[in-house]
Amino acid sequence: MKLDCYQRTFAHSSSSLTPIQLPAHLETHLWYVKPSEVKNESLLKQYLDILSPRERENVMQMRGEELRKSALLARTLVRTTIARYQINSQINPRSLKFRKNIHGKPEVDWQFSNDSLPPPLHFNISHTSSLVACGVTVDSQIGIDVEEKHRSIKHTVLSFARRYFSKHEIQFLASITDPQVQKLEFIKLWTLKEAYVKALGKGFSGAPFKTFTIRFKEDSIHQASEIVVDSFDEPTELTSNWQFSLLELANSHYAAICTEKHAASAEGKRNVPTKLTVWKTIPFVVDECVSGTDAVKTIYG
Amino acid sequence: MASFAASPVSFSAVSCTVKPNQVSNLRRASLSFSGKSSPSRRIPALRFRVACSAKPETVCKVVDIVRKQLALPDDRDVSGESTFATLGADSLDTVEIVMGLEEEFGISVEEESAQSITTVQDAADLIEKLLEKK
């Protein structure tokens, strides 16, 4: 069942989710929700109800109403999003179980009988107080990071970069004379680096920020055509395994998506552009496919 | 001979709110018997050391840095037990907090250590450990 883009789909009943096909092999799905658009108390109660007791506890421990709300929406988004991809039969978002890999990266703990293969679905979430996002792929590791474009930082861009970024990245930022542009480029670079580390799934110390460079490769006419990662520790073979997209969402946030490439051709890992579909959602209420609209601006990828 | 190695815990008035029971909270208590044991009594080589939690001033400074970084309202209660996550620190905040702590205390925190810090107390303990090494 193909979801027609530019369309708004309202849920049939207050607890239903519009089902959707798994992303294809080279496809990425991105779902996001804006906490400011979810105000209905009974809806929030409904969301709380689909969480596991542990998740509920974690949400209630957050200090402050806004933080509780975005924590609640983060877990709600993960559960409802995965449940949409009704793999074998109806999946109740409440019944999903999660576990962490050896490095602490969350993944689905599929509860199927032995004769069914678990679906090769991968997901990653990121949230700020103003936007919560969940990326989904099939057969490919994924890491995403979202950040408010105009998020304030306490240190200067360059002192921050000197502490955490690689030499090449520091040079890139230092070469930007306009401080506002420099700040925006800094945020973009941060989200890309975060997305990469999250895709690797080894935790912050598994790939310290200083040990890899993210840069924009230029094509023959000096246009930035591709985002690439160079690592001091990993051979080129492994770093060319990863591809990036960078978007501007809802005019307010940068979203970076890092996914595994697949050996697309005989020459090895040629860069085959991934298809990205983006939905804005209020789970159980409305889904809006926003790809191709002003809500999603592709910066790279 | 039992020997105690204890870092001084000062009870002087501090301007931030540190609950008294946290100050006296002994973490990882261990006693030390260094020295000779008589041949007839084979005391196994147990190494004990009494270590107290980080000084309240250290916890105080960490609290200040966290408050500023996260722009917390004055009525938001922050103590040693507070976790950065529940206070709303995301990954960018966390690295900025680490930077702030490095600047304030003149220390250098490695990524592995930074990753293991989840509470204000963890941060204060790590700071004192790094200061001790200097």
Automatic annotation (TrEMBL), chain A:
Biological process terms in GO annotation: lysine biosynthetic process via aminoadipic acid
Stored Gene3D superfamilies: 4'-phosphopantetheinyl transferase domain
Domain 4'-phosphopantetheinyl transferase N-terminal stretches: 44-133
UniProt protein name: holo-[acyl-carrier-protein] synthase
An MF annotation (GO) of this entry: holo-[acyl-carrier-protein] synthase activity
Listed PANTHER family: 4'-PHOSPHOPANTETHEINYL TRANSFERASE SUPERFAMILY-RELATED, PHOSPHOPANTETHEINE TRANSFERASE
Taxonomy of the source species: Eukaryota, Viridiplantae, Streptophyta, Embryophyta, Tracheophyta
Organism: Erythranthe guttata (Yellow monkey flower)
Domain 4'-phosphopantetheinyl transferase: 141-258
UniProt keywords, alphabetically: Transferase
Pfam families noted in UniProt: AASDHPPT_N, ACPS
Record SUPFAM superfamilies: 4'-phosphopantetheinyl transferase
Cellular component annotations (GO), alphabetically ordered: cytosol
